[in-house]
Specification:
There is one protein chain. Strands 1-2-3-5-4 form a 5-stranded mixed β-barrel. By secondary structure, it is α+β, with helices and mostly antiparallel strands. The longest helix is centred in the N-terminal third of the chain and has 27 residues. The relative contact order is 0.14. It is built from 3 helices and 6 strands; from the N terminus they run H-H-E-E-E-H-E-E-E.
Length: about 140
């Protein structure tokens, strides 16, 4: 029979921890570590879900001129559908807060408004462009990046 004391094989607190910490503190530290891990995974997921700009060919800048069909100031990026020549383009804009801060307020890109957009074509979607600059009718150019 093994008696408790010096010869006991039962793990002590010092077996798992370099210093003896109160149980409540150890539980709090574990909860913090788990919470930090969960937050890291959620943040990493949102970063991976956001598209990369390498989908657009920066070596082939395009300038499109035409009329707005419709637009949206949705996050994470605004958009415009525009008719340029015989094609309809989906133009990806900057985040709405940036566009408004740089002088392109919500409601400016109404259907029928003439615009000119400078940007880069999508590598695989021939109908999409990432805008770097937009000019509305006779206004000044708004830098989006």
């Amino acid at each position: 029979m093994i008696e408790s004391g010096a010869h006991s094989r039962e793990p002590s607190a010092s077996t798992h921890w370099p210093i003896s910490l109160p149980l409540q503190l150890r539980v709090s530290m574990r909860r913090f570590a788990v919470g930090a891990g969960v937050c890291s995974m959620l943040f990493a997921g949102s970063v991976l879900a956001h598209h990369g700009w390498n989908e657009y060919d920066a070596n082939k800048p395009l300038t499109l001129s035409g009329a707005v069909i419709d637009s949206g100031y949705d996050n994470p990026h605004g958009f415009v559908r525009m008719k340029a020549g015989d094609r309809t383009w989906r133009v990806i804009l900057a985040p709405p807060s940036r566009m408004e801060a740089r002088g392109l307020p919500r409601g400016t890109l109404k259907p029928g408004v003439a615009i000119s957009v400078v940007g880069y074509p999508h590598r695989t979607d021939a109908q999409e462009l990432r805008a770097e600059r937009i000019t509305v009718e006779s206004g000044s150019a708004v830098e989006l990046r």
